């Protein structure tokens, strides 16, 4: 399962939104800007992030990118 599919599945969003989330996680400069960006594009997906915890979510996305690549993270 790719990271984009995993993100999309976990958040219950489209792969396009999952791609945006992964990009925000990988390039975000501050926690606030990341949260604001994700909140702007995901109304329902934020609950999923809050359930597992933001730090755990970011760590998981970065780990999947490092191990399997960006496409895998987006699929997750």
TrEMBL record:
Primary localization: secreted
Sorted UniProt keywords: Antibiotic, Antimicrobial, Bacteriocin, Membrane, Secreted, Transmembrane, Transmembrane helix
Subcellular location: Secreted
Ranges that cross the membrane: 34-61
GO BP annotations, alphabetical order: defense response to bacterium; killing of cells of another organism
InterPro entries: Bacteriocin_AS48 (IPR009086), Circ_bacteriocin (IPR020038)
Top-level lineage group: Bacteria
Pfam family, one: Bacteriocin_IId
GO cellular component: extracellular region
NCBIfam families reported in the protein's UniProt record: circ_ocin_uber (TIGR03651)
Protein name stated in the entry: Circular bacteriocin, circularin A/uberolysin family
Organism name: Geobacillus stearothermophilus
Top-level taxonomy: Bacteria, Bacillati, Bacillota, Bacilli, Bacillales
